[in-house]
Amino acid sequence: MVLSLAAMLGAPQHASAVQMSVQPSTPSQWGNGSAFYFGHTVLASTDFNILNAGGAYTVQCNHPATLPMTGERALASSTYGLGKNMLTVTIPEQLPALRNLSGWTQIPGDTLLSCNYRWTAFATEGGYSIGVGGISFPIGSGTMRDGGTIDFQMYRPAKNDADGGCKP
Fold first, then answer.
1. Between the CA of residue 72 and those of 61, 75, 90, 102, what are the distances in Å?
2. In terms of CB atoms within 10 Å, which end of the chain has fewer, N or C?
3. Backbone angles phi, psi at 8, to 5 degrees
4. Cα(66)–Cα(103) distance, rounded to whole angstroms?
């Protein structure tokens, strides 16, 4: 009863318009070498004039010779109060991203590696408060977060097949 009375009297409630979706790409090895594709895209929008969005990643495989690979990226957008504020952020900057797994030459031939791509994403909008007579109503300042893990495999061919079976 007290809560409903406070709501009727205009107790502070939070209003947010931030929206976010994430499109992770499926990690995959390129050929039989140390390179692999990965990345994700954050699509964010709000009705407020300031929007920040981005994310981070960690790629790790189950062999002690490999080191975790990490990165992050974020962007900001301002519409000066005119129209919908929309922002697309690719993480890393260029997709599809192609990177080499560290320690590849230290992995014995004919080894199947279990790897994972852990990603996070966020979108945060600007905001302000409207107040009268000691009661304020915050508008905006909403944040959305998401994350996930995608497992993938990489194969280190036998040393005598390091070129993927191609013969000169």
1. 19, 11, 10, 18
2. C
3. -70, -30
4. 5
- Spatial separation of the C-alpha atoms in residues 119 and 108, rounded to whole Å: 28
In this prediction the pTM is 0.81
166 Cβ contact partners less than 8 Å away, ≥ 6 residues apart: none
82: tokens are 């005119």
Cis peptide preceding 92, ω within 30 of 0: yes
39 is written with which tokens?
């990345």
Side-chain-side CA neighbours of 114 within 13 Å: the count stands at 3
pLDDT tens across 38-91, in order? 999 999 999 888 999 999 999 999 999 999 999 999 999 998 767 789 999 999
Which two tokens mark 9? Answer: 């009297």
What token pair was written down for 152? 């993938």
Q: Report the length, in residues, of the chain.
A: 168
Distance of CA 65 to the CA centre of its chain: 26
